[in-house]
Specification:
6 helices, about 30% helix
């Protein structure tokens, strides 16, 4: 895993040739969006975490990999939700996807179908395709970021942006798209969307964080 991180990031930071320097800088600047991945968290030691909670709101903590736990489904079902908003998750079971009467919408931190799966704002840099850094608001289906696309956009990037800044900009843009989509559903009863092409783009998974394996193309 450590060798994978070196292989990926030294392409953009060739001066970081010492392990301690590399890991220190990686942890301090690039940790957002990575540190909770089970295959990465052992190497990432964030200096702080921020948890924002709204007073009076009940929160249910679901362990990583347990998004399809019966506990979550039992809690959500009585609410009979019209819309469920998702910000990245494991593949959801159909019973959960079918819960909302109007829509389940996901913010995907990449431009589908070109970059789907995990770390979709980082792989374009590895592949030297920064033009594919963007965000997608899409309906959730049983696939991995394959649901019908509602909105897409690209953030305005600066030359000085590191991975952390890119991640935050992507999520900020995605949040605006999510709010726009929800408002449209609430006002019109539905939102226009279009089907993704099935034979385009690339899917990245955690197994691709392996320097011994070829990068998918």
């Amino acid at each position: 895993m450590l060798s994978a991180g070196r292989s990926i990031f030294r392409k953009n930071a060739p001066a970081l040739i010492r392990d301690e320097q590399f890991l220190k800088k990686f942890s301090s600047e690039y940790s957002a969006g990575f540190r909770f991945h089970p295959m990465l968290r052992e190497y990432l030691r964030p200096y702080f975490d921020v948890l924002a909670e709204k007073e009076g709101t009940n929160y249910l903590n679901i362990a990583c990999g347990q998004i399809n736990s019966p506990q979550l489904w039992i809690i959500l079902k009585p609410f009979k939700p019209d819309i469920i908003a998702v910000l990245g998750s494991s593949v959801l079971m159909q019973e959960t996807i079918s819960l909302p009467s109007a829509a389940m919408i996901n913010i995907h931190s990449g431009l589908s179908p070109y970059y789907r799966g995990t770390w979709s704002y980082g792989w374009p840099l590895v592949n030297r395709e920064p033009e594919y850094i963007g965000v997608t608001a899409h309906h959730v289906n049983a696939g991995i970021d394959t649901g019908d696309i509602i909105y897409q956009t690209k953030p305005l990037l600066a030359e000085s942006d590191d991975l952390n800044a890119i991640f935050l900009k992507v999520i900020a843009e995605g949040t605006e798209l999510m709010v726009k989509a929800i408002d449209e559903i609430l006002n019109k009863g539905s939102v226009e969307s279009y089907q993704q092409p099935r034979d385009a783009g690339r899917l990245y998974q955690m197994k691709d964080f392996d320097a011994t394996q070829p990068v998918p193309v």
